[in-house]
Amino acid sequence: MYKYYSVIRPISIGTIPDCTIREVVNFNQRQYVEEIMRQAWGYFLTPDEIPEEKLQAYSLVSADAAVSKWQPVAEKISEFSKKAGDDMEPEDILSAVTSGNLEEITGYLVGFSRSEYKKEALMLFREVNSLRSYS
Asked: Radius of gyration of the chain from Cα atoms?
């Protein structure tokens, strides 16, 4: 079963592609959804996988795509933290991201602005911000 969130409008006729619908849940208002790390109006469940171009056309976000998008940067930050003498695991970073605490991650990276790790921390900071603006 696939779960897709509608991020710009409540789900109604014509707001999602043709597919087999198992369940539709509309929220009373747009709200932050930890699972996709952004705001949404609701979600629907379907046994059909929806192609990326349809997701973009209907402004839908796959529940699975959000975490997989952050996985590579979480691993980079984890590697960086070990070099810097800390021990952050990718799961800790993903947990902060999915709970809406991106400031925890960016604050950690900014803390290196006057150290020998400044350049690498800045590159990671930019990568986090680019993902955040995409979310």
From this structure: 17
pLDDT tens sequence across 84-102: 888 888 888 887 776 667 7
- Contact by Cβ (8 Å): 3, 11: no
- Give which of 50, 77, 54 is closest to 64, Cα–Cα: 50
| Maximum C-alpha span of the chain | 55
pTM above 0.85, yes or no: no
pLDDT of 132 strictly over 80: no
Select from 110, 35, 107, 101 the least CA-distant residue to 25.
35
**Which pLDDT belongs to residue 35?**
80
